[in-house]
Specification:
This protein is 25% helix and 23% strand. The protein has 465 residues and is an alpha+beta fold. β7 and β8 form a beta hairpin. The chain is globular, with a radius of gyration of 24 Å.
């Protein structure tokens, strides 16, 4: 690898070349027209006019944390918990010399592995792989159907079983040959989708062999574990939606983990001291930067395809039950990432934006903000708030760790919290119980200037890994 030009506050001048096709590029900021040259005008007597009072500035809806030696951190966290460990992570990010303007924290912000979940970081001339994370391209897809609540059967257990049979989920056999969360023989549509993705993957693996070791094709169109889910929801008009949450599965994890470690190794090689080794970065103009951009772009395509295939499988499974009327599944659809990187223009400069647990919310952008099991979820439209780098939260955000949730809550607590919802109610999902997350109502109130609510959804069925 060639010796990199390590970014500093005065060094980032090269025009960036990163292009990510999955997310819309931020619209260029309007440029005021040059005023026309003044023309001489004969003076005319003018009657005095009352002077209108200056309009009051809109109240600021975010808090600012000033960081000695760094840029500010702007957080949309009023009325929601904001743990000190997450604040400290953000302060460390803010001291890096290539951060653009400030760091933005969404209302679902919480401490994360490597970098803060719910953070939006704009950089000049470098990218921080941990600021994207290891579930590259993780995100949401939702589709409104023509069905209404009255057309659903009284009991939803059979529909849940059909979805669980149609979409591999969870993880067994340590992810080995008998893993129930992967396909033994991928369906034709999935095999064709992988065939389109395979050349890009092979190009990455040819340069970085470690990424090529592990499953890829057999996990395409599968859900995964943790907070990934498939849901049937009802909106405010009692219309039925299908919504799901997943990402780039094991292959995305390998790509993210590999480049995070590669960046750390490069920092050690070039004697770069960091406030936190997890903030190791790849300078633009280096081979590793170029390779990471290619790999993360590919993983984002994999993740988006993964969600589309699962949505198709769910619709087919629902139709095959014979319990539902014929329905149209294409009335309205949204597919958005919330762990990704893109090139955008903010405050007049072309910058690299990493969103880890945040959704792009440019003017008119549609996004999905899910609540926890048993809570409301939202289809939203972005307002293009410039201070948030046109972003919003990706969900409610955890209020505590999984370990703490399992210590604090019982199966009985979870059963009570998910009453009326067809879902798992066993010890293995207690860490996903609603009380383990922040209040989605408070989260939405804290970001009222970031998005408008288009639809409010409530879950009636949930499949978890």
């Amino acid at each position: 690898m060639a010796s990199p030009r390590l970014p500093s506050s005065s060094l980032i001048a090269t025009e960036p070349t990163l292009t990510i096709s999955l997310e819309p590029t931020a619209a260029a900021e309007p440029v005021a027209a040059e005023p026309a040259a003044a023309q001489p005008v004969a003076a005319q007597p003018v009657a005095a006019q009352p002077v209108a009072a200056e309009p009051a500035a809109a109240p600021r809806t975010y808090d600012v944390m000033h960081v000695p030696g760094g840029v500010p951190v702007k957080s949309w966290t009023r009325g929601v918990p904001f743990e000190e460990s997450a604040r400290e992570q953000l302060r460390r990010v803010a001291t890096l010399p290539f951060i653009h303007r400030h760091v933005a924290a969404m209302p679902d912000v919480h401490h994360g592995m490597g970098a803060t979940v719910g953070s939006v970081i704009a950089t000049r001339g470098a990218v921080i792989p941990a600021a994207v994370g290891v579930d590259i391209g993780c995100g949401m897809i939702a589709a409104r159907t023509s069905m209404t609540a009255s057309q659903l059967p009284d009991g939803l257990a059979a529909l849940r079983s059909a979805i669980e049979a149609a979409v591999p989920h969870g993880r067994t056999d340590h992810g080995g040959a008998n893993d129930r969360g992967a396909w033994r023989n991928p369906p034709t549509a999935h095999a064709e989708a992988w065939a389109a993705l395979a050349p890009g993957y092979q190009a990455i693996a040819d340069k970085h062999a470690k990424i090529g070791r592990g499953v890829q094709a057999t996990q395409l169109g599968t859900l995964g574990t943790g907070n990934h889910f498939i849901e049937l929801c009802l909106d405010e008009a009692q219309q039925v939606w299908v919504m799901l949450h997943s990402g780039s599965r094991g292959v995305g994890n390998r790509i993210g983990s590999y480049f995070i470690e590669l960046a750390k190794r490069d920092m050690r090689r070039w004697f770069v001291n960091l406030p936190d080794q997890d903030l190791a970065y790849l300078p633009e103009g280096t081979d590793h930067f170029t390779d990471y951009v290619a790999a993360v772009s590919w993983a984002q395509r994999y993740a988006s395809t993964n969600r589309e295939l699962m949505l198709r499988s769910v619709m087919m499974a629902l139709r095959a039950t014979g319990l539902l009327p014929e329905f149209d599944a294409s009335l309205e659809a949204v597919n958005c990432h919330h762990n990704y990187v893109s090139r955008e223009k903010h405050f007049g400069e072309s910058v690299i934006v990493t969103r880890k647990g945040a959704v792009r919310a440019g003017v008119g952008d549609l996004g999905i903000i899910p609540g926890s099991m048993g809570a409301k979820s939202y289809i939203v439209r972005g307002k293009g708030n410039v201070d948030s780098f046109s972003s919003c939260s990706h969900g409610a955000g955890r209020a505590m760790s999984r370990t703490e949730a399992k210590r604090r809550f019982t199966v009985a607590d979870h059963v009570a919290a998910t009453a009326g919802i067809e879902c798992r109610k066993d010890a293995d999902v207690v860490d996903e119980t609603p009380a383990a997350y922040k209040s989605i109502d408070h989260v939405m109130a804290a970001q009222a200037d970031l998005v408008d609510i288009v639809h409010t959804l409530r879950q009636v069925l949930c499949v978890k890994g």
